[in-house]
């Protein structure tokens, strides 16, 4: 008990204060909790001035066991305990599984925190899901009617599929987080798809989240196709239908136009019809960290 610091100065005034607080609390909501004890990283204990009880009374209650333990909600599991993003959550709770968590990318007040899906396993985890898409005409993949849908609110003047600003909560919940928020989460991106290989890319002179054409440093994360093992994109280009990633030629094309082009998903990076065919529920996902 010697470690209890004098943050709460025990003086004769205490009794007066207690009686004032007591009468004040009668009008207060019974659900309001007052902090009594706090501990700093060195293990020093502090008593709160607003504890409503004098030091000796608090000590008496601690010794006699007349107290309740309050568990604060683990990070990411409530709006009030939001993580910044899935990468932040991964560093705080390395054992956390993939799933929906509360995040607050701009920090500060959690009033604008929201729920998002985190992939905490692939390539070290820490990935925040920003887009889940499917196709308008998967079975006639190279028809101009085929496009990715919905699409993020990125600049693509020639695109006409639905624009989404709803946070996707799973890999088959086809929505896109407000594009302006992507860059507040991170720069590195992961693309997962059940018709093309999974890749993770870091910025070179180009950037997806900044919508900037240029080079990328991509690596293969999972070979989904049996073709062209090892090919990865090397650059990003901003087309009026949406961005595409280039290897020798197009590898991923996020074509959002149902009147022209087709949404290439070619593991060989040659802009050919090499996507995996006959897949039920064909889709793709972009994550950022
Ligand atoms: Ca905030
Ligand atoms: Ca098209």
Automatic annotation (TrEMBL):
Domain Fibrinogen C-terminal: 77-130
Keyword DNA damage included in the entry's annotation: no
PROSITE patterns named among the record's database cross-references: FIBRINOGEN_C_2
One Pfam family matching this protein: COLFI
Keyword Signal (UniProt): yes
Subcellular location: Secreted
Signal peptide: 1-27
UniProt KW keywords: Collagen, Disulfide bond, Secreted, Signal
InterPro entries xref list: Fib_collagen_C (IPR000885), Fibrinogen-like_C (IPR036056), Fibrinogen_a/b/g_C_dom (IPR002181)
NCBIfam families hit by this protein: GGGWT_bact (NF040941)
Protein name as catalogued: Fibrinogen C-terminal domain-containing protein
